Amino acid sequence: MEAKTLEAQLLQDWQCPQGTVPIVRSPQYRLGQKTTPFSPSNQLDANDAKNHEFAQVSATEGNYFGASARFNLWKPATFNGEFSLAQIWLVAGDGQETNSLKAGWRSDGYQRTGCYNLECPGFVQISNKFGPDAVLAPLSRYAGDQFEISTYIYKDKKSGNWWLRVNEIDLGYWPSSIFKKLSDRADIVSWGGEIVNSGLQGRHTSTQMGSGHFPSEGYRKASYIRNIRYVDESGAIHDVQNVFSFVTKPECYGLQRGDIPNYGTHFFYGGPGYSDKCLV
C-alpha cells in the first residue's frame, strides 16, 4: 500500500529574545494540569532495568556517528507513575561504563519518572523557539490521520558535540566532554518503544506502548517508526538494512517489520499491556 502522512508540530505561541532560551516550568506549575508529587513510599525507580520492557530493533555492526527516524505520535495510557515512550538510542560501552543518548517522544501523565530534557545537567539548548520538552501535536488517530515527527541525532566532527534536530530544527547539543565512551562514536543504535512496568499486586501493568495496539493491525492502527537510518564517519546517511529485534514480552507488546513502499526500513511496534495473555 502507498501511505500518506502529515507532519506534527512543536507547539509554542511565543519566542524568546535572541540569545535566550525557553525554560519549561516544572509540571506542578503548568496551568490546567493536575499532578501528584511522588513521596518516598510510592516513587517508582524508573532506572531499575528490571522494571523496563522493550520492543526495539538495533544495528550493531559498525561505528555510528548519528541516527534518524520518523515516529508517528500517540498518547498511550499510562498508570502508577509509569511512562511509555518511543525513541532512538545511541550507545557506547557496557556495564558501568555505558554511555547513551536518547531522543523521541514520551507519555507519562506529567509524572516525574526519570531525568529528561533539561532536568539533568549536560544538554545545551540553543533554540530560542522550542525546548526539548515542547508539546507535539496533533496526535495520530486510530484508523485516521497519522501525524509524525522526525528525529535526528548527529555528531559534529569539528566540535565533537552530539546535536539534536527535531523537524529540521536544531534544539541543542550534548557536549562530547560529558562522555567517556560516547566522546567519539556509538557502538549500537536502537529504535523502538519502551515502557515501565511497576508490577503492582503481582500483575502486569496496563500501560500501553505506542498506539496501544499490536503491530499485526498495521498502518493507521499500530504505531510505527520509519526511515530508520544511521550516519557513518564521513557524515553520509544510510538506510539501515541489517538489524536484530528485541522484544521483552511478545504477549504484551509486539514488533513487526513493515512493507510499505515509501517508508524505507520501518517496523510496527506496541501493544495494550495487561490482558488475558499478558498477566505478569
TrEMBL record:
InterPro entries: Glutamic_endopeptidase (IPR053168), Neprosin (IPR004314). Transmembrane segments: none annotated. Residues 45-279 form the Neprosin PEP catalytic domain. Pfam families: Neprosin. This is Neprosin PEP catalytic domain-containing protein. It comes from Hibiscus sabdariffa.
